[in-house]
Design goal:
By secondary structure, this protein is α/β, with parallel strands linked by helices. The protein has 23 helices and 20 strands. It is globular and about 80 Å long.
Length: about 575
């Protein structure tokens, strides 16, 4: 059978199945059905980590239905929906997205909240700041997928959602010599048909690799999910112990497809290639793309994360009396223990200056290296905490290069060099979107002067290319990284060789996302822990999305729900603890 017939058959079959059963796969399932799925999923997590999720609202963030539940955005927008009878003093260690989102809900529920952040700025892995010359510096390249329902709800709540710039529904690959391929999802019919035709028409793969792709994806859990979403997702969950390469080639997928298409996507998701990334991680994203048309739609901020994402959250917190302490390093967590030395309750945090701050509940909203440093050694007697030390992270280097012209404009010499005049609001020449490449050491990149011009465009200047280099380049000197990035940009865009690089910046992050290698999912802790008033938040904690901004947001909402659900019990335990100390 020809490739065209294979693809056509897949499109017609998948499209008819999707149209016939889409109500079953959506968030309109009966409450009884949802309860069965969620209980089963949570039970597996409890067996693995020894913890317990008590809040029904937190349970809505996990389980198969959470992937498709657009209503989670309304929950994030509305807030906790309750005011606790018992008012707690809550200390949050870490001012990343997870910690700040948790603080929003806890403050709205009537609790007294303080956040302690080591750095001089908030944001965690989504941080940005101004250098001495007024340039906005970022850690990473931050793209907002259309299925970020929780994060979008938070942004609507703080008034920042309108600061996102919607991009064309196309994912473009740039190859050496200036050739491009794409997954073009722009199609009159939505998912899954729009995705199938995008793969069938892409110029990024040859006929053989397309046929191999069709074979592998046609026998994947994604196809089952079109008519049995729970069954498909359960199959995906079972694939955490194998790499995507092992799964894909075992289903007939080709090495060419991996090298030309899937590796760039894997690097963009987790900064590791298909030979090392978990099949569960990759297929989770593909599942969302197949079911939800908007999942593969991209948005980017008008400018820096600090201005357009974090500042509105900080104002929201300030309006509700939340105190955010910057340059406040937490050196220890003080706790009570039983006769066997097993920690039972946390009492306070100790800052680097020796100050002790007492709280009724403490949330460790750190990244993986941060929480590994924060946890007292005795906490590792609990498997849920000890498992955290089995997680490791990947290194990245974020490179920014500014030019005196428009790098991604490859056809018009005049437009490429035109920088005199007002090119604000993304009016410069070139590609206004996220870009991928199989031929560079940066997994994904973009011209921020086009995609996020509010703060990244400078009058009289052209492109500001932001490229995220992975472990292949991390150990080089900053000067060498800049030189190598520039060489690779010139290889991708040969016409850019006549432009001058006028400014550069390199930010190295030795431990960024947790490494999504096989077998790691079982080590991710839940937000509630065996210590009754100590909680965890962060994108590495267990939620049914990958390590991402959406994952961090989900975890922040979940941990707030857990604290609120236990507020009366925590308050009572705090009073007993105070009485015992006084006695």
């Amino acid at each position: 059978m020809s490739l065209a017939r294979v693809v056509a058959a897949c499109v017609l079959w998948a499209g008819s199945e999707s149209l016939r059963v889409s109500p079953v796969a959506g968030p309109t399932r009966s409450a009884g059905r949802r309860a069965v799925v969620m209980t089963a999923t949570v039970g597996r997590r409890e067996g693995a980590t020894g913890d317990s999720i008590k809040s029904e609202r937190a349970r809505q963030q996990i389980g198969n239905d959470a992937f498709l539940n657009r209503a989670l955005g309304k929950r994030a927008f509305d807030g906790p929906g309750v005011v606790s009878d018992s008012k707690l003093k809550v200390g949050i260690v870490g001012a990343g997205l997870a910690g700040m989102v948790a603080a929003m809900d806890l403050a709205d529920a009537g609790h007294e909240v303080e956040i302690f952040e080591l750095r001089p700025f908030v944001g965690g892995k989504v941080s940005s700041w101004l250098d001495k010359e007024g340039n906005h510096i970022e850690m990473g390249l931050h793209v907002f997928f259309g299925c970020y329902y929780n994060l979008f709800g938070i942004m609507e709540r703080t008034g920042s959602f309108e600061q996102l710039r919607l991009k064309e529904h196309i994912h473009t690959f740039v190859n050496n010599g200036g050739g491009t391929g794409a997954l073009d999802f722009r199609f009159p019919v939505g998912a899954p048909v729009s995705g199938l035709q995008a793969f069938a028409r892409t110029a990024q793969l040859g006929l053989y690799d397309k046929a191999a792709n069709a074979l592998a994806l046609g026998t994947s859990p994604i196809v089952r999910a079109l008519f049995d979403f729970d069954g498909g997702m359960d199959m995906v969950r079972e694939l955490d112990d194998v790499t995507f390469t092992e799964w894909f080639t075992g289903k007939g997928g080709s090495r060419g497809s991996i090298e030309r298409m899937w590796d760039p996507i894997a690097y963009a998701l987790g900064f590791i290639d298909c030979d090392h990334i978990s099949a569960r991680c990759m297929l989770t994203i593909f599942m969302l793309f197949a079911i939800r048309t908007e999942a593969s739609v991209l948005r980017m901020l008008e400018g820096s994360p600090q201005t357009y994402l974090h500042d509105p959250i900080l104002k929201y917190l300030d309006d509700r009396g939340v105190k955010v302490h910057l340059r406040a390093a937490v050196r220890d967590v003080l706790y009570d223990a039983d006769d066997a030395g097993l920690p039972t309750r946390v009492r306070a945090i100790k800052l680097s200056d020796g100050t002790e701050r007492a709280f009724d509940a403490i949330v460790g909203a750190c990244d993986v290296p941060g929480i590994q440093k924060l946890l007292p050694e005795a906490f590792r007697k609990y498997p849920v905490f000890d498992n955290i030390y089995k997680l490791d992270c990947v290194p990245i280097a974020t490179v920014q290069l500014r030019f005196n012209g428009w790098v991604t404009e490859m056809t018009d010499d005049h437009k490429r060099r035109a920088v005199d005049g007002d090119f604000a609001d993304g009016r410069g020449a070139g590609i206004d979107n996220l870009l991928y490449s199989a031929d560079a050491e940066f997994s994904c990149f973009a011209d921020l002067a086009l995609t996020s011009p509010g703060e990244y465009y400078k009058e009289g200047q052209g492109s500001l290319m932001q490229c995220v280099m992975d472990a292949r380049a991390f150990n080089r000197s900053e000067e060498q990284i800049v030189a190598d990035t520039l060489d690779q940009i010139h290889a991708l865009f040969p016409s850019s060789r006549d432009l001058e690089c006028t400014w550069s910046s390199v930010v190295k992050l030795g431990q960024s996302l947790y490494r999504e290698k096989p077998g790691q999912d079982k080590f991710r802790p839940s937000q509630a822990t065996p210590i009754e008033n100590f909680f965890l938040a962060g994108s590495y904690t267990y939620q049914d999305y990958i390590d991402s901004m959406e994952g961090a947001t989900k975890s922040g909402l979940m941990v707030a729900d857990e604290v609120i659900a236990r507020a009366d019990a925590i308050a009572a335990a705090s009073k007993r603890g105070e009485a015992q100390q006084q006695a």
